[in-house]
Design brief:
Blueprint (H helix, E strand, L loop, with lengths): L1 H18 L2 H20 L8 H15 L10 H41 L2 H14 L4 H17 L4 H14 L4 H13 L6 H14 L4 H6 L3 H7 L3 H4 L5 H8 L6 H12 L2 H7 L2 H21 L2 H13 L4 H14 L4 H14 L2 H14 L7 H11 L4 H9 L10 H6 L24 H12 L3 H14 L4 H19 L2
Helix pairs in contact: 1-2, 2-3, 4-5, 5-6, 6-7, 7-8, 8-9, 11-13, 13-16, 14-16, 14-17, 16-17, 17-18, 17-19, 18-19, 19-20, 19-21, 20-21, 21-22, 22-24, 24-25, 25-26
């Protein structure tokens, strides 16, 4: 179809150019240049909005049109055309007013969600729907708010399910919406929607097969690890069979398998609680074999995995530094080898080199490498820096979990802040050590006697990740201490 359009458009342009005056030829050549530039730009961006497509339609009409002299229209006809234009303009003004009011209620609803006032958020979401019932964006937002309410009050579950089903019937390519619907299905009692939940997750995976969360939710840990090997370190319900199958899969590079084996093998909780003795033995023996295989391949991933192995399991920091240095030389834009090497130098007391590596990690990726700020805080503490400097670094050591806006931004050209519902438990897929800096900050506050500040840090940690038992245990300890002080003033 595209080739046919190009051919027909080219023929139309040639016919117009042959019969055009010199002045019109210049305009036609400009139109052709505009089409060529638009085509080149389309190799990198996708233009779907009316404002982007209207100039193309005008250019196409100009090329196809054959200018001919016409009689001056009568006064009555001119008046009719003028009033028709005014009426059209008035209709557009009314509709745009409705659209803007709807978007305003949507914005206020999002603000209420951020403030935790979900009943108000629902009321404002429904007002957005009533002002612009033709835009599915507001239906999706209403379903999302109902899903949030259902997390606290199961009475909302059925209504949230209906809203999501109706909204996704209009927008079936929204993968996050399908994941949320699957979570709501699973929230119902009795497993009535078990098949529907599996079907929804399958549909989401078909839309976005590169999302490891979707494979993990479906129980396919091996495929999830292929998309994100870091899942091996912290997934709360990690499936030992999936991990072992991944490590033993010869179709995957030795470096990536060794990386997963090191993450699992150096995590005592996973090895002792989630692995039976046979699976743990398989991982240990496979790790030894993968070390030899990784030394043969010698790309940056293999070198990084070998460095991590020598540091965490091999107890050979000199070898670890050599492998990590090779990985950095081959691929300096990945923050992980920089961070691993910085920790080794910090353990050795080489503060200057540790600082250099930590700052290099932040330069390579300030977002993914935010944990390097915790290393810098420990360095400054050993140097005797002021508390303010150390605490600021610890505050910066936890990066916020991003909320992808590719769907709402691409389809509707506006933010919507759609996230996974809490029922999906996505926060459980974040490594506990990721929050080490904030735990250190809370402990500093406790030592300084700033108990309320420490309590706030622990509460913020649980808001970020409800699965952090270390934070909930710390809050219980603080509460117990408060009670003891009240009983024994």
């Amino acid at each position: 179809i595209l080739l046919w359009l190009i051919v027909q458009g080219g023929r139309a342009w040639w016919r117009s150019w042959q019969t055009a005056s010199a002045e019109r030829r210049l305009w036609l050549e400009g139109a052709l240049a505009a089409f060529a530039a638009y085509g080149a730009h389309s190799l990198f961006d996708t233009f779907t909005f009316t404002a982007s497509l209207t100039p193309l339609i005008i250019l196409g009409a100009y090329i196809a049109a054959q200018p001919e002299p016409v009689e001056e229209p009568h006064a009555a006809r001119r008046l009719w055309v003028s009033w028709a234009a005014v009426a059209t303009f008035a209709v557009y003004v009314v509709m745009l007013f409705r659209f803007d009011v709807a978007q305003g209620w949507m914005t206020l609803s999002r603000r209420a969600v951020d403030d935790g006032d979900l009943p108000t958020a629902l009321d404002r979401a429904e007002k957005a729907q009533s002002w612009d019932p033709w835009l599915p964006l507001y239906d999706l937002h209403d379903a999302y708010v109902l899903g949030l309410l259902a997390n606290d009050d199961p009475a909302y579950v059925e209504k949230a399910i209906r809203e999501y089903e109706e909204a996704l019937a209009e927008e079936p390519t929204f993968d996050v919406g399908w994941v949320n619907l699957a979570a709501l299905y699973r929230q119902t009692s009795g497993g009535v929607y078990a098949t529907a939940a599996r079907r929804a997750l399958t549909h989401a995976t078909d839309i976005n097969p590169r999302n490891p969360l979707l494979w993990f939710e479906r129980g396919n840990v091996q495929r999830a690890l292929k998309e994100d090997a870091d899942l091996a370190e912290y997934a709360p319900d990690i499936n030992r069979t999936g991990v072992v199958d991944f490590i033993l899969d010869d179709s995957i590079s030795p470096g990536k398998r060794l990386y997963v084996a090191v993450l699992v093998g150096s995590n005592e909780t996973i090895m002792t609680r989630k692995m039976d003795w046979y699976s743990a033995g398989q991982i240990t023996s496979a790790t030894t074999r993968l070390v030899d295989e990784a030394k043969v391949d010698g790309n940056w991933m293999e070198d990084m995995a070998l460095g991590m192995y020598e540091h965490r399991l091999g107890n050979n920091d000199d070898a670890a530094i050599r492998w990590l240095t090779r990985a950095i030389e081959l691929h300096p834009t990945d923050e992980r080898p920089w961070i691993e090497r910085a920790e080794i130098y910090l353990e050795r007391g080489d503060l200057n080199t540790a600082e250099s590596d930590a700052r290099a990690a932040l330069f390579a990726d300030a977002y993914e490498g935010a944990y390097a700020n915790a290393i810098l805080a420990r360095i400054e503490e050993q140097r005797g820096a002021d508390d303010d400097i150390i605490e600021e670094l610890l505050k910066d050591s936890v990066r916020p979990r991003p909320i992808d806006q590719y769907f709402a931004g691409s389809v509707y050209g506006r933010p919507a802040a759609f996230d996974y519902l809490p029922q999906v438990n996505v926060s459980g897929l974040i490594p506990p050590h990721y929050y080490d800096g904030w735990f250190e900050l809370a402990q500093r506050y406790e030592v300084q006697g700033k108990i309320e500040d420490a309590r706030q840090i622990y509460e913020d940690l649980l808001d970020e990740n409800p699965f952090l038992t270390q934070a909930s245990d710390a809050l219980k300890t603080l509460s117990a201490n408060d009670e003891e002080q009240q009983n024994n003033p």
